[in-house]
Specification:
Blueprint: E1 5-9, H1 13-25, E2 29-33, H2 36-45, E3 50-54, H3 62-71, E4 78-82, H4 87-95, E5 100-103, H5 108-124, E6 135-138, E7 141-144, E8 149-151, E9 157-158, H6 162-174, H7 181-189, H8 199-210, E10 221-224, E11 228-231, E12 236-238
Helix pairs in contact: 4-8, 6-7, 6-8
Amino acid sequence: MILNKLLIVDDDPKITELMGKFLIQHGFQVYSAANAEQMEVILSTHKVELIILDIMLPGKDGFAICEQLRLENNPVPVLMLTAMGEDESRIRGFKLGADDYLTKPFNPEELLARIQAILRRSQASTVNFHVPHTLLRFNGWTINKLQRVLLSPEGAEVTLTDGEYRLLEALAERAPEVVSRDELLHITEGREAGPYDRSIDVRVSRLRQKLDDNSKNPKLIKTIRSGGYLLSADVVKDS
């Protein structure tokens, strides 16, 4: 039996031990690191499927670690742990490429549910099944659904997090239809929106940057007030 490998990055040994024991009991292989340096050593020798990353760390904090992972084009999903009530921290985490967040203190069962949801979304990308079309082309950009990559008009691969990819694919599949924020949140994170939830808005902002779409006057991904978002482009679907 192949176990999913998780990495916990948290400098609190008690929390790390409790999380580790709980996740091992639920069938995961767990590594732990107390700081960025230990994390880098583990990642250099082990392939992990998900990183549980605390924000408050000695030296390089969780934000800097998440940003560095994305700058290195490392697509490993990141579940960030934030302190209660820190909305700005959650938004900043999404902007830096985190896939989900969990507020401390948390119920271990919720931690497990979020991990399982992230892994389902991530692992679905590796399943090679028949689809009616595999390419989505718009304005020079190409989405390859089998490889789950975005290619620029120049043919260069654009690094996207799993959530960003799923959001863009959903908009392209439905273009020019408006897709609501609630539906996009369900597609990208598998959960319902909470009060003042801005995670989709943050992901759209990151996508616009990667698509060279002016955020002040976007031409591709347009905001529909009280509606959601739409991809304003003619999408060609090829096999």
